[in-house]
Specification:
123 residues, mainly alpha, 5 helices
Amino acid sequence: MHDIINERLVFSLSHAKVIHSRMTTIIHEDDFIKNENGEVLFDSIITRLQALSENFKTIEKITPGFISNNLELDAMPISRFRDLASHHYENLNHKIIFHICREEIPFVISSLENFLEKGSSSN
């Protein structure tokens, strides 16, 4: 595997795990908007989602189809999130971000861990 791809996968896993960890205090989608702490968590999670997205975008530029073929994830929405967050931040909906973090991030973590585990066991 290309060294840059492996590095980006490791970074992606790190970002996804931080998101998952930060979500432990967000029980309900409105927890993002009910106080300043929620807003700070929202901002920090958005930043991690952007970084995850940028890593996936880089991987797809190097090897198109890598994400869907190896991680069984749809790379398109993940890769486009960075542009959405960067250029239309005010339009990000806390309910959608909550859903992404609760429903999608655990699967991203699992997919990345499984793939990286297979890669390291074949060395």
